[in-house]
Amino acid sequence: MSEPTKDLIVALDIGTSKVVAMIAEVLPNNGFNVIGIGHHPSRGMKRGMVVNIEETIQTIQYAIKEAELRAGFTVRSVCTGIAGSHIHSFNSSGMVAVKDTEITQNDIERVLDTARAVSIPADQQILHVLPQEYKVNDQDGIRTPIGMTGMRLEVKVHIITGSVSAAQNIVKCIRRCGLEVSDLRLQPLASSTATLTQDEQDIGVALVDIGGGTTDIAVFVDGAIRHTAVIPIAGDQVTNDIAMALRTPTAEAEELKLRYGVAKQGMVPSESVVEIPGVGDRVARRVKRQSLAAVIEPRLEELFVLVQRNLQEAGFEHLIASGVVLTGGTSLLPGVTELAEEVFMKPVRIAQPMYDGNLADIVCNPRYSTVVGLLMSAREKRGEIDARLTDNRSGGLGRRKQPAAEKSTANDGSKRSILKIMRDWFVKTF
Predict the structure, then answer these.
(1) Which helix (H) or strand (E) holds 252?
(2) Which of 94, 198, 209, 300 has the fewest CB atoms below 10 angstroms from its CB?
């Protein structure tokens, strides 16, 4: 493999059921083209957290190696995601006085620092501080206050925290693979970046990402993130129910779910039959497909009820006018949309990543919503770094660079004033 000569970004989605690595080339128009994909069944993860370091490292290595071989480049750093029941979120606010009347990037950073100065448990760390809206003097509802004139700047933010040990374990696994972590992002945020339209975020929408170990929730109202949550129930629970009810190994139960699973029992023809592999030396048996659906439907209905209850308790159930957006691998089951509409009593759609570049026929799948969102986040962060470097070279935002002629004039004036003061003192003294 040759050394990378292109501007590359790499995303790594470490999930409970699978690990996906995706390499993309950043284009001049700020887009990107996927040039390598690697995925491997996940081992060592449970409900979004690392439970076996060595197995997780091996799984990451397999996925990264496959992506490198397909892309023809060596990976050095990755943008990865984090999820799990240890994730907590809350809203906060901050206020500062504007220094030079005109609001600059420095004022934005100062007011965000005041908003994040909150008390959190010692075993938690702040992952994200996401601005919701700004207020300049008495004018609220501002999204970008830079360049505006005012004396007082306020901000409302959404703060997301996570377990320190959980984040450290993920970073440790990646570094043991010889890679660096360029960014650690909450998975539902990444999925929302890849799947939600701006109109949905403005009207109000709830994203429900149903993965293998966790179901992630992200609520957007008025174009800003308002609520996030993680429910430790997802596709793996459905698989376990199938394995217990039909007395078959977990691997076979997963295969049955993917090939013959239906979320609504009424959608399955009564004459449809599936073959259930036996355990050990027992012979295979045939059962009605409706029996399989009868196991899947109650679990998914329970999951949607938990999501609805979470939205009710947070006070956002009546604010998501555009409805619910489902994504993730489990959302591919037939009948999921119909079942979700019965529970939520709102419009429901299945979302796939908004991507139209290379390998779009593979990438545009709800299974890859998180990893594509991580790529978009990595591209956005790359753009912010480039803009900051350009700003530093040009003298900084909101700060005019003094020309050389002005500098010399100012220096000459200061020298003359000092000489005049010394001369006057000498005349008065002697």
Answers:
(1) helix 250-260
(2) 198
The amino acid at 167: A
| CA distances for 128 relative to 5, 7, 125, 363, angstroms | 32, 26, 9, 27
214, 184: one domain: no
Q: Rounded distance, CA 54 to CA 60, Å?
A: 10
Strand partners, 348: 324
Report yes or no on 383 lying in a domain: yes
With contact defined as beta carbons under 8 Å apart, do 105 and 153 qualify?
no
Helix (H) or strand (E) holding 228: strand 224-231
Structure tokens of 193? Answer: 């970046």
Q: What is the average pLDDT across 149-173?
A: 92
> Region 93-108: what's the mean pLDDT?
90
The least confident of 133-137, 156-160, 322-326, 404-408 is 404-408
The answer to whether residue 418 is domain-embedded is no
CA 58, CA 75: separation in Å to the nearest integer? 16
pLDDT score of 422: 59
Residue holding tokens 């990543």? 353
Closest CA to 68 of 179, 196, 210: 179
Given a contact cutoff of 8 angstroms between Cβ atoms, the answer to whether 219 and 229 are in contact is no
Helices and strands in the chain: count of H runs, count of E runs: 12, 18
Sheet holding 180-186, edge to edge: 32-41, 18-26, 8-14, 77-82, 180-186
Indicate the range of 72-81, 224-233, 400-409 predicted with least confidence: 400-409
Measured CA distances, 241 to 5, 35, 299, 392 (Å): 49, 38, 8, 57
Query: Which residues, at least 6 apart from 20, have a Cβ–Cβ distance to it below 8 Å?
Result: 12, 13, 37, 38, 39, 63, 367, 368, 370, 371
pLDDT in tens, 6-53: 788 999 999 888 899 999 998 888 788 999 999 898 888 888 888 889
Is the distance from CB of 335 to CB of 262 less than 8 angstroms? yes
For 223, the domain range is 197-350
Closest CA to 64 of 165, 181, 163, 212: 181
Let me know whether 133 and 260 are in one domain.
no
Using CA atoms, how far apart are residues 137 and 410, in angstroms rounded to an integer? 36
Number of independent structural domains in the chain: 2
| pTM of the predicted structure, to 2 decimals | 0.82
